[in-house]
User: What shape does this take?
Amino acid sequence: MVSSAHDIEEGLAFTPKFDAEGLVTAVATDAKSGDVLMVAHMNDEALRKTIASGEAWYFSRSRKALWRKGESSGHTQRVVEMRMDCDQDAVWIRVEQTGAACHTGRRSCFYRKVDPDGGGTRLSFVDADRLFDPETVYRK
Amino acid sequence: MVSSAHDIEEGLAFTPKFDAEGLVTAVATDAKSGDVLMVAHMNDEALRKTIASGEAWYFSRSRKALWRKGESSGHTQRVVEMRMDCDQDAVWIRVEQTGAACHTGRRSCFYRKVDPDGGGTRLSFVDADRLFDPETVYRK
Assistant: This one.
């Protein structure tokens, strides 16, 4: 069944629009601060597990594998609310983050600011303190 | 020049990692409320124009075209801060949104909540008031 644009945008049926790889984009924000913690992807199974369990599951494009956020690090995400966007190809989850979201040890993956620098563009660190040492946490 | 994962994650060089279509994911949040307004994409030119102008530019995958946010509707986004994520394939912009971000007339594209409903999953409207009537704004 093909849904019309109107049904997808104005309807209340959950009809995620997966891309050619079977994925939707998932944005996780900190439920308290509103900061974006990470941008990742979910396939159908990750979506269903996230909804059913209330814990964030993703699909890794590089590893081609489903993963529960925090399964290695213990830094899980409890989902406070999940929202779907207008064309149903992106989800936004507001989460309670245990520890740090980023594999580099930072609270958020977005620990660098983009600064115009004359003709070029540079990054600078911001909120870049490490909450854990990735060498220790992922060494197993 | 191929950068190492360490350089990409810990360096201060702006080296966006474009996908096969030449795009990075862009998440726009409201600088005041922290709400996610929209998820879209930027190509190299959209990134450069956004950085240079301080106004959000995107690349539409469906229309295969660069667009300045608000060029049809007047609902522009002034960029307060842009951040890059760890692997440099996603940017987060905190914006001052004029009017509504969503083409359906809502402030945010994420105007529906995902609710587990027994075996199924349903959506429900939340913050779904229309700030404009798309029929009027886009009728040209």
